[in-house]
Amino acid sequence: MVKLNKIYTRTGDGGSTGLVDGSRVSKSDARIAAIGDVDEANSAIGVAATLASGETGEALARIQNDLFDLGADIATPGGIDGALRIAASQVERLEREIDAMNAHLAPLTSFILPGGTAISAHLHLARAVARRAERSCVAANDHAPLNSEALRYINRLSDWLFVAARAVNQSAAGGVLWVPGAQR
Description:
Layout: E1 16-18, E2 24-26, H1 30-49, H2 54-74, H3 88-102, H4 118-143, H5 148-172
Antiparallel strand pairs: 1-2
Helix pairs in contact: 1-2, 1-4, 2-5, 3-5, 4-5
């Protein structure tokens, strides 16, 4: 378990930060950028969760916990026995939940605008931030290999957020389709 009694350590004042194995890297390192973007996605999901209830709220709470697992995974270089890693079962859970939500949605006939209800708008924002986090994870993986399940998870997360946004909009009749060239 994590125990934090002191929030500032001064060890990062020179622009470096520690990884789980004790090694230090620049705060501008691609791995650290990925961790920060995952944290931002988690925060955006937290905002959406304030408006969620029922199964959606419970799922968002699970996802937020998973994102802490993901951050720990990214912060742990490969080859460390017993490291906390994103597991295939976490990706598979997202896929099952996507399929369950999608089963009740009409097929898309156009792109949808990111909005509708307040919760849907927040889920769309979280989706866009999750996409950025995915790009950062891929960039970090280009420098030092990450857990492949971590990459699968962050990719699937944006799909989950997109379908969840559609689902909550459908239940509130708030979805808005894109009409190409409508404002010409």
